[in-house]
Amino acid sequence: MGSLPMTLPELNFPDSSSKQSSINETTLLNLFKSQQNHLNFFFNNLNISQTLAFTKTLLDSTGTVFFSGVGKSGFVAKKISQTLVSLGVPSGFLSPVDALHGDIGIVSKRDVLVLFSKSGNTDELLRLVPCAKAKGAFLISVTSVEGNALAGVCNMNVHLPLERELCPFDLAPVTSTAIQMIFGDTVAIALMGARNLTREEYACNHPAGRIGKSLIFKVTDVMKKQDELPVCKETDLIMDQLVELTSKGCGCLLVIDQDYHLMGTFTDGDLRRTLKASGEAIFKLTVGEMCNRNPRTISPDAMAVEAMKKMEAPPSPVQFLPVVDHENRVMGIVTLHGLVSAGL
């Protein structure tokens, strides 16, 4: 590949005696445009047949897909491996140096080893090749320089077209690593589709993330139970239940009968409205007289994200939902604060 004309804006680098440097919006914008042009060169010249063969090899692997690289390419290789793991693909990063000191023992003939290197002449990777071949692994090099040594000794090579580095000296690996990352992550998503990974399966691999929680957590996982419930009877006086109303942190009372069936709810908002309308008469009013007889409820087996949607539904949002079974018996209560605290 012949050298191409420099397309970068001219930068004024300080000499060794100067501590001053400057940059402006035009210079920065031109750098981004230049990087965009270099990436477009990659997109326009990538060999899709090579990429398809690479993707199918990873898809058909019955073992682990290992990735390796040195320096910046090593960081990219590790990230792509982690992406595949998150998609349920058995994968791992193999340090070429550590591999030569025992870690190669994890590699078997069922595995694929992908070697990332811009030049394809990285000594550490070239020393790793015969050791990995002796273990029977299938070797794939992913490189950007034509006719490199690594491509010549691996079972398969994928060429990543590189116009030049964004670096004005064409040295710092910033464009080459960008196209490595784009290539690897795009292949990962292709594998995701080929393996028919569902949203639920993806969520199971990310249980601590918001997506995972929304698809895994049920109401029973986030609701208050047993002694945490602010319950009372219909015949209880409102003023006798103020402590119960305020101490459980739910902002409401769950009005139940002797068999724990839900009869209604009474909120702190109901308390204010009743006090305003009744004045001193509130001392004689029972909870049953003023409670909401038709509150929104939810099943303990419903998804927690469904509870969130139900709370926000028209005609007006609510801060809690009583949790009831199929016989309308109170099982718990889920609050908006509890859902937010759970990361939903």
UniProtKB/TrEMBL annotation:
Keyword Zinc: no
Pfam families from the UniProt entry: CBS (PF00571), SIS (PF01380)
InterPro entries membership: CBS_dom (IPR000644), CBS_dom_sf (IPR046342), KdsD/KpsF-type (IPR004800), SIS_dom (IPR001347), SIS_dom_sf (IPR046348), SIS_Kpsf (IPR035474)
Keyword Metal-binding: no
Membrane-spanning ranges: none
GO biological process: carbohydrate derivative metabolic process; carbohydrate metabolic process
Domain called CBS: residue spans: 223-282, 291-344
Keyword line: CBS domain, Repeat
Family annotation (PROSITE patterns): CBS, SIS
Site (Catalytically relevant): K72, E124, E165, H206
GO MF annotation list: carbohydrate derivative binding; isomerase activity
Superkingdom classification of source: Eukaryota
Residues annotated as domain SIS: 54-197
Region (Disordered): 1-20
Alphabetized PANTHER family for the sequence: ARABINOSE 5-PHOSPHATE ISOMERASE-RELATED (PTHR47476:SF2), PTHR47476
NCBIfam families per UniProt: kpsF
Family (UniProt): Belongs to the SIS family. GutQ/KpsF subfamily.
This protein's name: Arabinose 5-phosphate isomerase
Organism name: Cannabis sativa (Hemp)
